[in-house]
Structure formats: structure tokens, C-alpha cells
Amino acid sequence: MPNLLVNNNLLELGNIDTPSITNIVGSNKRSYPNCLNIYDEWTDNWYTDQSIRCMYPELGPTVGYAVTCTFGMPERNGPRYTFMDVVDALDESLKPTILIFQQSFPSEIMNKVGLSGENMTAAMKAVGCIGALSNGPSRDIDAIRPMKFQYMISGVSAGHGDYDVLAVNAPVSVSGMDVIPGDIIHMDENGACKFPAEKIDPILVVFSARGALEDLVPIWVPVHDLGRPRLREALPKLFRTLFFLDLNNSEIFLKWELNCLVQYTLCLLYTSPSPRDRG
What we know:
Elements: H1 8-12, H2 18-25, E1 53-54, E2 62-72, H3 83-92, E3 97-104, H4 118-126, E4 129-134, H5 141-144, E5 150-153, E6 164-168, E7 172-174, E8 177-179, E9 184-188, E10 191-195, H6 200-214, H7 228-249, H8 254-271, H9 275-278
Parallel strand pairs: 2-3, 3-4, 4-5
Antiparallel strand pairs: 1-5, 2-6, 2-9, 7-8, 9-10
């Protein structure tokens, strides 16, 4: 049975660029005190390296549940799976989906396997898939463009030979990122990252609170440079964020926002005109 359920909060993540997601998901507390510390930036394989590129940057961020498969040279005893098994896995997953397909071909042909083209893409899109990510090339770039289907791949190649599907919904490693079925994939022209599905809501909470602060008071601007009107505008929004987001949902970044609140309140006091100035 196809799974037609779409997580609306997942769709909200499509309004955020991938670098901002990595700032929240990672462990770089020196620069991002309210990060969730899910992965270590250097030792965990949770975002892609520079070996892939975004084919359709105009589509913006693409977010979905990972369905995985591995392609390789034809097996001696015949294929264990076909591409229809991949389509079935996409159909049965939560929606929307992103196919993460690892290409395991010999090094001498790895860069000339234009694996996924117009027909495969049409089949994937028909069952709710909105993008694909692979460590190898694909083809039919112009034909796929009107489909509004994102590709993150190593490049393009015009042809390919025979191949088999070696695995479906098994762990894969693609361009420096290790993925298991059901991971959330977030990708745009900067690359891709992953995180567990249960972290969708905490990420949105952190991003909402950070946005409330950074939209008005960028954290890299010294408080004494902001000026009194700017601070007066920022403080009510900070209070709303603190009481309506943090206390109801999470304490992840409570201390950080309280610290900001204290700083800006003190700055407001110091920048208030003295009685002599009012006279």
C-alpha cells in the first residue's frame, strides 16, 4: 500500500537553506550555542563533500525521507532486485521521498555511468519522489528539468551499460554521507545533509527562535552598535520567543537566549537618554 502521509513540519524545512540546517544539527557550539549536537562536524559522516553538485539550483531546498539502493555491475547468478523493487520502496515510504543511490562500479568506468535518466526519473516522481542523490553521474538533464525533480550527482554522462540493483533500503555511503532508510535528507545548491526524522520538530523550534533574534539583532553585531530603537524593536520578539517556544517545547537554547536578553536589556538601559539629554 502506498504511504500518502506527508509531514507538514517536514515541508516547513524547505524554507531553510542546507547550511543553516547543518548549523543546527551539528556540534559547533562555539559559533552556534543553540545547536542540537546530533553529529560531530569532523568525525561523523552526515553531510556531503564537494564531489557532487546540484543540477537544478533554481528549485531551492529539497527535503524528504531517504529511500536507499545500490547499483553495480551485473551479478553472475542474475539480479536479486530490479528497478521496480526500488520504485516499490519509494511508494511504500513516508512522503515526500529522496532516493539515495550508491553507485558501486569499477573505478575505470565509475565516471561514465550515466545511470538515471528521463524514464527512471518519471517512474520515481510518479510515486512521490522529489529528488535523487548519488555518488556517480546521470543523464537526460534537459529532459528532466521540466519535471522539477532535483538531482545531486557527480556530473553527467551520455550513456551506460548493463547493471543490476544490488540492494534496496540498506545502508549506503554517498559522497561522504552515510544514510539509512528513513533519514531526513535536506539538500540544495550547497550540498546535502541528513538527520533523524525525530529531530524535525526540535530543528524547527531552534530555527524559529534563532530567526526571531537574528532577523532583528544579528549575533555578530556588537550590542553597543545596535542603537536604542533597534533594541526596543527586538526585545518584545525575544520575550515572545522565550515564553512561547522555549518553555513549551525545549530547553535546548534557553540559557543562550536568556543571556542575549540580559545583554540587550542592559544595552537598552545604557543607551537610554539621561535626564540631562531629555532636558
